[in-house]
Backbone:
């Protein structure tokens, strides 16, 4: 998964809401569906997409399945941020030097 | 509530030049090439590989308020590219003594930015 896949999956507002709900803590599919005006099959599809993107994981407990956010799931996004957080300060220093050399 | 994306990237510093001069360094390709990234051929396409970024970065001006505010759409392609577009915004506030408060904000990449630079906001989870 790269950050683009993550964004594609999270671009769907319902799916993002499901993910954000799970960010509050592990819950069963039934608990997760409460508060969402969507059918069980629709929720299952969103869960499958989130799992496919590595954003959530499931844990079976008897006849229940518990869903939770996979802490590794957002790593590619965090890597993108880390690359650019390292990039910009060095560039701003180069800009600072350039404007000293520029004519008015 | 946890934040999905972390803080937005914002960098702020004081530069020893008036906004008009910095504006030129932010808009004229020959100057951009000297501080930002090597230009790749025509237009505003930069090569990011040596800096550890995506191979190609296409910058398109999406909004400007001359000498004050400038936004580029930042579109990556090639190796290490984010598929979505992000936005790089420069803000220049004049200070006394020919100085400028310089602020750079880089949004996280999101799919389906349109040409007005309207990127759907990533909400905090």
Residues:
């Amino acid at each position: 998964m790269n950050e683009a896949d993550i964004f594609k999956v999270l671009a769907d507002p319902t799916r993002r809401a499901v993910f954000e709900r799970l960010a509050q803590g592990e819950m069963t599919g039934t608990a997760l569906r409460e508060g969402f005006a969507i059918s069980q099959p629709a929720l299952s599809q969103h869960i499958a997409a989130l799992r496919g993107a590595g954003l959530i994981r499931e844990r079976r407990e008897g006849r229940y399945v518990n869903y939770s956010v996979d802490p590794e799931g957002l790593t590619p996004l965090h890597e993108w941020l880390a690359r650019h957080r390292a990039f910009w300060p060095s560039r701003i220093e180069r800009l600072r030097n350039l404007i000293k050399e520029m004519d008015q | 509530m946890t934040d999905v994306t972390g803080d937005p990237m914002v960098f702020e510093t004081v530069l020893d030049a008036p906004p008009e001069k910095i504006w030129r360094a932010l808009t004229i390709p020959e100057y951009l090439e000297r501080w930002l990234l090597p230009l790749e051929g025509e237009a505003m396409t930069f090569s990011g590989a040596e800096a550890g970024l995506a191979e190609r970065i296409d910058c398109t001006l999406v909004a400007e308020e001359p000498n004050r505010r400038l936004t580029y759409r930042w579109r990556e392609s090639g190796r290490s590219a984010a598929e979505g577009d992000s936005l790089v915004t420069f803000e220049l506030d004049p200070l006394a003594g020919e100085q400028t408060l310089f602020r750079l904000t880089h949004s996280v990449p999101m799919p389906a930015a349109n040409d007005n630079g309207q990127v759907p906001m990533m909400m905090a989870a």
Summary: Chain B has two helices and six strands.
